[in-house]
Amino acid sequence: MGSLPESLGDIVEDFRSVDGQDKLQLLLEFSRELPSLPPELEEAAMEPVPECQSPLFLAVDTTDRGSVRLHFSAPPEAPTTRGFASILHQGLDGQSADAILDVPDDFYADLGLSSVVSPLRLRGMSAMLARIKRKLREKM
């Protein structure tokens, strides 16, 4: 059984504290908070995540294994996908590789979004986390 870094645990608690459409509203808030890519990073150089229903690209910077940097790119017209990316960014960016690898693969189930988001879309979040972990393992 893995564990969540405090930042990701706080996000899970935020989602647990609201119901129904308020969960969707919170996800939309996260989608608006996804940071832009740094100027030196281009989407073309990032890894696509085809499991997502909308175009999503990610980059995992493992230069410092004690503080892994995550970058995501998703179009503004894909708020659900952007919201998932933002949750992972806010919850995991800057964490150690070990802390990220320790996150349970199905942690997103604790967000309680299955009542407002399709299982297909939720699989996109699972795929993002799986790709991040795969990149970390490749670099070890």
Automatic annotation (TrEMBL):
State the signal peptide span: none
Q: Locate the coiled-coil region(s) and give their ranges.
A: none
- Could you tell me which InterPro entries the record lists for this protein? Fe-S_metab-assoc_dom
Any Pfam family? SufE
Domain Fe-S metabolism associated residue range list = 12-134
Could you say which protein family the record assigns here? Belongs to the SufE family.
Q: By what name is this protein known?
A: Fe-S metabolism associated domain-containing protein
| Species assigned in the record | Hoyosella subflava (strain DSM 45089 / JCM 17490 / NBRC 109087 / DQS3-9A1) (Amycolicicoccus subflavus)
